Amino acid sequence: MTAIQFDSHGVKTFIKEHEYEELKPQLAMAQKLLFEKKGAGSDYTDWVNWASNFDQQELQEIQRLAKKVQQQSKVLVVIGIGGSYLGAKMALDFMKSPWYNDLLEDGQTKIYFAGNNLSAMALQQLLRVIGDQDFSVNVISKSGQTTEAALSFRFFKQALEERYGREGAVDRIIATTDQKKGTLREEADTAGYETLVVPDGIGGRFSVLTAVGLLPMAVAGIDIEKVLAGAAAGEENYRSANFSSNAALQYAASRRILYDKGYTTEILASWEPSLQYFAEWWKQLMGESEGKNLKGIYPSSANYSTDLHSFGQYIQEGRRDLFETVVRVDEVASDLDVPKTPENSDGLAYLEGKTLDQVNQTAADGVAIAHIDGGVPNLAVRIAKQDERTLGELIYFFEMSVAISAYLFGINPFNQPGVEAYKTAMFALLEKPGYESESQLYKERLKNI
Ligand SMILES: O=P(O)(O)OC[C@H]1O[C@](O)(CO)[C@@H](O)[C@@H]1O
């Protein structure tokens, strides 16, 4: 049973059947490399069977800590950047709501995200939002030394210590980090924080189904066992199935063929605001995995229908190097009938008798046709509903697709050497110890840009 239907009807006029045929041997090879752990970066492929082998003790520990946070605090601040926050945020929105914090039932814990920027304003505003509510902190960093997260943690630690004293603060901190190494691990061990582990064999952007994403999800009351079961089902569906019954391979193949025809930007679009962060998570997954060696599809996103009224014009008539992958949700959790009015002063009587979701779905169908006619290939990933199982499988689907896709490009999907460039420049300009020789150089450069 699969929770995902991959629909390539919208690329029929752009991709010929024989083009899929020709790619099949390479796809099969990439699939073999990934699952036999023989491809580039294979040390970072533990995610492929992570959910199906999930350690029960780890699960209990995550649940114990989630309960502790729920009992202790009205607010959990999740500090992390990139893969150390996007997965949790996307899961929260997908399973609960972008307005999760405003829709809580009595006694539930609010969740805010910090450490994903360096903005003084954002940090001060969040501290004001927390106000005098009891709070706990989950600081997440695989490397343990990412500046944004580490610096933010310093501020929240100070706020905790001012409120609860040193010991009280320690009792409200959970550090999710490497098992053995890194600054955060050392600090956690010395101070005595509760800790959870980011496994060695899973990179940040593939870590949503480790403690990184699972603890915040559990605090929000999401059934993490069901999410894991969904990912395990994904493994079963895509691991060894051949092309004709393997949606992940079909998606990877479609993207690659389109790329070779000049469609070098992919828009991940959805019609549900609760999927906006799904696209943010996906952008990191795709961009950091594939964008190397001057290759790769540029990942972008659109939220419909709002973006049709902003850059929809570009999608329809701008440069023809775009294709779209639309995540379509077939059944919304609850629908609304369009209200009936006797006077029809707004001219919307033609929508009476329909539900709001029917209007949404029809708009999605119409936009697909318009975009295809405008020269934008249109792929769809259809899910029946937004539940835990589907979320787990969707995560697996995109993770596997991008790994296959990168192998087709001859790229290591699991490293991110390019992100070091900005860090070197920033550290040199901030005069971080160890960057003395670059410091002067970058300061000179700054004068000339
Ligand atoms: O968990 P960490 O080590 O703080 O890293 C956060 C993010 O930063 C990156 O390492 C890029 O610098 C991402 O790959 C990662 O998801």
Describe the structure.
- By secondary structure, this protein is an alpha/beta fold.
- The chain folds into two domains: 213 residues, Glucose-6-phosphate isomerase like protein, domain 1 (Rossmann fold, 3-Layer(aba) Sandwich), CATH 3.40.50; 174 residues, Rossmann fold (3-Layer(aba) Sandwich).
- Helices cover 47% and strands 12% of the residues.
- It has 15 helices and ten strands.
- The protein has a five-stranded mixed sheet with strand order 1-10-9-7-8, sandwiched between helices. Strands 3-2-4-5-6 form a five-stranded parallel sheet, sandwiched between helices.
- Helix 8 crosses helix 13, helix 9 crosses helix 13 and helix 14 packs across helix 15.
- The longest helix is centred in the middle third of the chain and has 24 residues.
- It is globular, with a radius of gyration of 23 Å.
- It starts with a strand and ends with a helix.
- 43% of the residues are buried.
- The mean pLDDT is 97.
- The structure holds 6-O-phosphono-beta-D-fructofuranose.
Features:
single chain, 449 residues, alpha/beta, Rossmann fold, 2 domains, five-stranded mixed beta sheet, five-stranded parallel beta sheet, 47% helix, globular, binds 6-O-phosphono-beta-D-fructofuranose, EC 5.3.1.9, gluconeogenesis
Chain-wise SSE layout:
Layout: E1 4-7, H1 17-35, H2 56-72, E2 75-79, H3 86-95, E3 110-114, H4 120-130, E4 135-141, H5 147-170, E5 173-177, H6 183-191, E6 194-197, H7 211-219, H8 224-238, H9 247-260, E7 265-270, H10 276-290, E8 298-303, H11 312-317, E9 322-329, H12 356-373, E10 378-383, H13 388-409, H14 420-429, H15 436-447
Parallel strand pairs: 2-3, 2-4, 4-5, 5-6, 7-8, 7-9, 9-10
Antiparallel strand pairs: 1-10
Helix pairs in contact: 1-9, 1-13, 2-7, 3-7, 3-10, 8-13, 9-13, 10-13, 14-15
